[in-house]
């Protein structure tokens, strides 16, 4: 079930943004996934040792090393399709490409981890958690990753060369579709023969054909192949989810196969592992590389949340070894896939909308994007003038001329496209700069209006206090005058009484 999904991801990939952001993509997809695997592995062992994983009868569940390893590898696989439908590739090209690329390579790394675990399981079907196991796992992982990619690149270039020299093939869209599917199957078979990840070989061949072979195809053939591959992938994924729904009924009625505590802890481990995958990896990379990071905190938050869903790939991995594992492991993965797809997928739209709105209103983010865009423009100008990239030298000097049909004439088109992309980035830079200036002016106007309002309010308060003070003063003067009159009258009366007493000698 997985080959069509992975092959479609490679063949329909937007290569320009993918390669320009490959540093972030590979960082999160490779190193981040490995960190996530380690986090889930260690947390699962810790929860088991504390007796926190129990069945419905509150009995402690014992998981073998093989159960833990397969569970950890499976839970590293994320599904970012729900997020991709909500992120605009035009408004947020970098964010979109990182989410797409990280999701695609994440599946690839999870597959290689899964296959590497099968290599270290002994003939009795058991594995040991030790330092030897760890280094064996790393060895098989690196070996499988490198060989799978090399096989994919070889097959992709081979297919591209055929389309260059045998032009009649490219005239018929039906034949092109058949040829493309045959090449995909060829890369799968070579991967199986070499004993590496055949699915990753298909991914590599799909990316290479998308990057080179599309220049040898007619417009009609390019559209039909894209639609065909995408349709097959969608059908395959739909079948997987149908099977997911049907499989859930086989576990609901059996209490010994379900652990609510493991499901809840598994979801918690997913959150923590994803945090380590994105934030800890970013922190380590920024500390070591000491460069200006191209992703702001809002984009990192979206990348973190978009990778929380466990989808078709995770389910397909676990059912491949369903009969070898404790049923509780399979049911836990199944229900986590089910609930994250429905609950987090349903919440995804409001979360991304709220986060992007906050990001757009942040002046600090705009100023940071302006700096990054300026750096990118300078790099593009440098490449245009000096053509300094090693890969660009290899590609423009050898690969394109050897594998692209009528390259001398198409080279002019490529150069015009580069100039157009550079001009677009310059226009984006100017628009963003103008937007920041307008934003600051609006803030100054708002602050000025607020200050005027505060001053008016303060003046009103002062006038009110002065009026009240005057009224109090007037009342005091009137009262003082009345008291003075009474006091004067009393004094006069007293003097008259004293005079009367003296005269009458009283």
Automatic annotation (TrEMBL):
One of its GO terms (molecular function) is sodium:proton antiporter activity. Pfam families: Na_H_Exchanger. The keyword Amino-acid biosynthesis does not apply. It is a multi-pass membrane protein. Its main location: membrane. Gene3D superfamilies: 6.10.140.1330. Residues 412-456 form a coiled coil. Keywords: Coiled coil, Ion transport, Membrane, Sodium, Sodium transport, Transmembrane, Transmembrane helix, Transport. InterPro entries: Cation/H_exchanger_CPA1, Cation/H_exchanger_TM. Residues 2-349 form the Cation/H+ exchanger transmembrane domain. It is found in: Membrane. GO terms for biological process: regulation of intracellular pH; sodium ion import across plasma membrane. It comes from the Eukaryota. GO terms for cellular component: plasma membrane. The chain crosses the membrane at residues 25-48, 68-89, 134-158, 178-203, 258-280, 301-321, 333-352. This is Sodium/hydrogen exchanger family protein. It comes from Tetrahymena thermophila (strain SB210).
